[in-house]
Hints:
The radius of gyration is 17 Å and the shape is globular. By secondary structure, the chain is α/β, with parallel strands linked by helices. The protein starts with a strand and ends in a 21-residue tail after the last helix. A hairpin with an 8-residue loop joins β7 (about 165) and β8. The chain is built from eight helices and nine strands. Pyridoxal-5'-phosphate (PLP) binds near residues 10, 110, 202 and 205.
Amino acid sequence: MRPVVLCFSGLDPSGGAGLHADIETVAALGGLAAVACTALTIQDSQRVHGFEPVSPELVGRQAEAVLADLPVKAFKLGMLGSPAMVDVVIRIVAAHPDIPVVLDPVLAANSGGGLGAEGLSKALDRLIPLATLITPNTVEARRLAATEDLETAIARLVSRGARHILLKGGHEPGAILRNRLFRGDTLIYESTTARLPGEYHGSGCTLAAAIAEGLASGLELTVAVRRAEEYVGTALSRADRPRPEGQFIPRRTGGLPT
Ligand code: PLP
């Protein structure tokens, strides 16, 4: 049986982020993505126009149906959208303490459009201690920890129970992009890559899904992170941009680049 990753994510109709990213990534790496769909968003390659959450009860039932039937080996948590959704996810994740959890704390799209209701950031605090890994970019880390200083942000997230933090540097200025992986507040892995030109829709979702697939396959965390970074690098280097003013959409699956 392929390693099954149960993803909680929203539908992005442009195909760049959310559940498309999860399904394509997990499948490309050899796994099976099961999805509990948390929201229907309205967006294109340029911006978020709105979203409507799925009822938390329905999301819980989607997840429970999958968990009762398939051998889920990792959870990947993406757009949750509201505190009520966070509570349902906590209930499900807490009932399966042996299944690793990758939490991408989605608050907004890369384009800047909000993807969360009032109180989401605070509600995610309750989920953080249940995650094997959280994958904030620097904007999300600052918002979650309510501080501008990144070292303080890491310390605050650890004090709230974060076990591993992958701090993604894509939103920081400069030609070199730096990701740092912490166990508690100890740096255990660091990577640097040259920044690609342009903006990429769904790059964070793709990275988190690839890590979750790695954990579902039994890879050690730093190995899963390194492999996921390589995978994302390839998907972004082959991305398409539908409009010159819009974001690139990663090419995560096979087919010859055009
Ligand atoms: N989940 C959904 C449904 C989204 O639409 C987005 C962004 O548009 C995200 C997650 C986060 O995407 P990114 O990986 O670009 O941060």
